[in-house]
Amino acid sequence: MKTRPLIRSRIWAIPSILAALTLLSLAIALIVDGIWDSLASAVLAGILIYMTYEGFRPRTK
Fold it and tell me: What is the DSSP letter of 39?
């Protein structure tokens, strides 16, 4: 069975989204106070959980 070649934009889509969310959350946490601090920390925790899950997930071929 032939495999399709990976398109560069598909390879970098998720890491780019995670990087943008991380930068946005860090900026919000520094600039705005109140409920936004909790929201920013929740987004950062979600990113950490997702990355940990993907790191320990077994790879299939």
Answer: H
Question: 3-state DSSP call for residue 6?
Answer: coil
Burial of 40 (0-12, 13-18, 19+ CB in 10 A): buried
What is the C-alpha separation between 10 and 32, in angstroms, rounded?
A: 33
> What is the pLDDT at residue 25?
95
CA distances from 56 to 14, 42, 49, 51, 59 (A): 17, 21, 11, 9, 9
pLDDT digit string, tens, across residues 1-45? 566 667 777 788 999 999 999 999 999 999 999 999 999 999 999
Q: What is the largest CA-CA distance in the chain?
A: 54
What pTM, to 2 d.p., does this model score?
0.77
